[in-house]
Amino acid sequence: MALLMAGVSHRSAGLELREALALDGRMDQAFGLLKGSGLEEVVLLSTCNRVEAYAVAPDAQSAAARMRAFFEGLAPGRQAQVRKALYGAHDQDMLWHLLRVSASLDSMVLGEAQILGQVKEAYETAVRAGCVGPLFHGVFQRVFAAAKEVRNSTEIGRHPASVPSVAAQVAERLFGDLKGRAVLVLGGGEMAELTAEHLFSAGADRLIFCNRSYPKARALANRYKGRALGLERLDAALAEADVLVCSTGAPQALVRVDAARAAQQARHQQPQLFIDISVPRNIEPAVGALEHVYLYNLDDLDALAAEHRGRRETASREAEALLKRSLGAINDWMAVSRVAPTLGRLSAHFEAVREAELARASAKLAHLSPEDRQKVEALTKAMMNKLLHAPLSRLKAQAGGEGSAALVRGAEELFGLDPEKNQ
């Protein structure tokens, strides 16, 4: 039995392709297609940053081909793009990928808290769809425990190490809970998108995207369930913004002190955080002199980020070490689970023999008192357990090791165990 995964993420595909492959509104259809193609267990993960399918199948090669075809079918006319962006893994590499994803080591925002909940939701959705069997049930429960240990035992999510993540931390320090706070993102490049992702992960749920290219603003707004504005509406939007993130390639200032002052008056002097990570700067430095306005530029944020990079690197190494131990534990569990049916059939076979022999001897034991019958029962069970101890222990010890499959087949043949008959 093979474990496989295939998918695309922010590391391999742009926003437009990820949106084309997103499974929102077609999850039931996707489960039907994959289960109908012969995959025995399926979990589908669809977030802003990744669309991935995890599967259990009898044959790795044919299953991988079916999963590739599934992803190509999600975006008709863009098969070449999908093929280029699609990645996959099987068995150990699949488990390692799932562990890293769940522990946020593969996230756009390293250490972000949302991904574990998203993986849990994906698993629960697959359970409700009848697509999770005993193998994935055991695997995912152990993955969840590993990811939780990483979050509780390391500082992976506590020390922002990039300018966008520090920007989000500064916003949290100023406002506390970001839920309900309006965040205006001016620009549509990578830094603007990363900063929006950090703020979104920190709880911001009122995102407004303003861009010279309205389609670009609309694409980002769709992704974060926000609003899109053209650049001509920037000054009016300033009054609404609790946080302004500015990251554009404009050669001159887009946010001028007069507009910021007017926004403050309209807000009745409520505090605002302005974050300018543009080069050259797009917010006039004089804006920072306004009362109740807090202005941070790229140098300010980079200095804060530098303080945390060493801690984040240490935390990442600690997280990787924890996940490697968890991977070993998952492998041990899987190895034992593979021989568990044989162990059960072997125990059942010996118990059936014991009961049959006692039944055959019942007439000869009729003179025994109930207490003596219990002693005979206990004696025969003890003898059976001693006889079984060595073969059961050997099968468990060899589970997953070289030659374990041959050992299991040998035990089945030696004791005349029929898997079909014993199901």
- The best one-word shape is elongated
Fraction of residues in helices? Answer: 55-70%
Oligomer: single chain
User: In terms of structural class, how would the helical and strand content be classed?
Assistant: alpha/beta
User: What share of the residues does DSSP label as strand, in percent?
Assistant: 5-15%
Average pLDDT, all residues: 87
- Span between termini: 18 Å
Q: Might you state the CATH topology name of the largest domain?
A: Beta Polymerase, domain 2
**Tally of strands:** 10
Number of DSSP helical runs: 15
Number of domains: 3
CATH top-level class of the largest domain: Alpha Beta
Task: Give the H and E element order.
Answer: EHHEEHHEHHHHEHEHEHEHEEHHH
What is the CATH homologous superfamily assignment of the largest domain? Answer: Glutamyl-tRNA reductase, N-terminal domain
Enumerate the spans where pLDDT stays under 50 for 5 or more consecutive residues: none
Main beta sheet: 6 strands, parallel
Q: What's the Cα radius of gyration?
A: 30 Å
Q: So, CATH architecture of the largest domain?
A: 2-Layer Sandwich
Give me the side-by-side strand order of the main sheet: 7-6-5-8-9-10
